Recover the amino acids of this structure.
């Protein structure tokens, strides 16, 4: 399989990741394009050095970090209405499911959000996630625990408000 | 608590949820969960969280990709970027074309390039020349072989459109469309119900010179576009035609390009 084909295969996942973090499709696509351009620039230097997927996500993470730094205050990025950003006509159920996922992610601080997305959605291994985010594996695991417990509580609370557990 | 159970760590619980455990460890964790309902409930919750996120975001990963993320195109743009003189020349040409107003299509296609531009040109041409079947047929029937591109250009080539009569479409004539890339022939076909489809062919420059087939939709028409060896093709229908993809595949397989 050619490197370009491999790169191409990863685009839907990169787009999904970028969208989940930025909430705006055109910003997400700009970021993915930057990521692809960088990947193309450095493709030759990368022969036989592990999987392409974690490598692409680490480029993506770096781009996100520099973007956040540039924007300085994350809170000013108004979380846009996800519905407006669904670029293809999505079914009502699809839209509802997307909103549920985005609402869930909203409960988490940025650092936990990234960990959870990389592992639970993108299926990356813990060691790869640690390398991508440039943190120790132990930190990945503790963020993962906090993120999962937090969202579990939220989901339970939503399903059975009367029985909501107080921690 | 048995010593075996003591060995279960929180990391292993995550690895269980994420499918990273081998069969033995998975069994160990499962046994542990059977006897620890609190932990089992927690794990079930984690699994629900993963499922909820994956399901919600899966819709995003299934969307068609915008043309700005076409890898082939980005790779070619990158080559062009590193080769400055050509880039400047191309920019000048484009500026001239727009500046002197030669390009009706240059305006119409805006900033778009490659297959996206071709799709738009094809859809507009279809609307202008083909869509209205009340209009008397005024196509010169110059045959199935036509020149593509500029006459004096070394890369000018001939295409031979296929016979689609087996698929129910009879060839009824041609139209020549003026594009920035030279002559672009259209081959027009009609079925027994008067439905018309056309094949639009033009030279592709720099971008999308070899691109796989992809669908397009505009307010004028919908169809499929692809390119091969620097020649781009569009198969267009103004009315819904369920067989259009199949027809496009036939056209792609049968159409011939010659020098």
């Amino acid at each position: 399989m050619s490197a370009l084909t491999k790169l191409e295969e990863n685009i839907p996942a990169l787009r999904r990741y970028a969208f989940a973090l930025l909430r705006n499709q055109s910003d997400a696509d700009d970021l993915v394009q930057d990521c692809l351009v960088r990947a193309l620039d450095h493709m030759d230097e990368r022969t036989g050095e592990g999987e392409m997927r974690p490598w692409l996500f680490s480029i993506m993470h770096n781009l996100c970090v520099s973007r956040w730094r540039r924007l300085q205050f994350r809170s000013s990025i108004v979380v846009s209405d996800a519905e407006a950003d669904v670029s293809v006509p999505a079914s009502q159920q699809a839209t509802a499911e997307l909103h549920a996922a985005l609402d869930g992610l909203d409960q988490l601080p940025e650092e936990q959000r990234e960990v959870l997305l990389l592992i639970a959605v993108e299926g990356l291994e813990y060691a790869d996630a640690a390398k991508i985010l440039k943190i120790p594996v132990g930190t990945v695991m503790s963020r993962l625990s906090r993120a999962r417990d937090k969202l579990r509580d939220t989901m339970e609370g939503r399903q059975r408000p009367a029985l909501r557990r107080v921690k | 608590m048995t010593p075996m159970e003591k060995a279960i760590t929180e990391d292993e619980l995550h690895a269980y949820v994420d499918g990273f455990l081998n069969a033995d460890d998975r069994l160990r964790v499962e046994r542990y969960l059977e006897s620890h309902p609190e932990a089992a409930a927690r794990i079930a919750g984690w699994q629900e969280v993963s499922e909820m996120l994956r399901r919600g975001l899966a819709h995003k990963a299934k969307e068609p990709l915008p043309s700005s993320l076409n890898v082939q195109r980005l790779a070619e743009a990158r080559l062009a970027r590193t080769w400055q003189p050509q880039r400047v020349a191309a920019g000048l040409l484009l500026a001239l074309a727009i500046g002197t107003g030669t390009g009706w299509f240059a305006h119409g296609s805006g900033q778009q390039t490659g297959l996206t531009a071709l799709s738009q040109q094809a859809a507009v041409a279809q609307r202008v020349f083909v869509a209205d079947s009340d209009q008397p047929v005024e196509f010169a029937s110059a045959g199935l072989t036509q020149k593509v591109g500029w006459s004096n250009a070394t890369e000018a080539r001939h295409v031979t459109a296929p016979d689609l009569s087996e698929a129910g479409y009879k060839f009824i004539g041609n139209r020549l469309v003026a594009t920035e890339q030279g002559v672009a022939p259209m081959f027009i076909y009609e079925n027994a119900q008067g439905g018309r489809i056309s094949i639009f062919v033009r030279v592709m420059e720099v971008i999308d010179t070899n691109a796989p087939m992809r669908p397009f939709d505009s307010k004028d028409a919908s169809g499929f576009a692809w390119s091969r060896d620097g020649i781009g093709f569009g198969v267009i229908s103004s009315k819904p035609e369920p067989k259009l993809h199949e027809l496009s595949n036939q056209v792609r397989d049968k159409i011939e390009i010659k020098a």
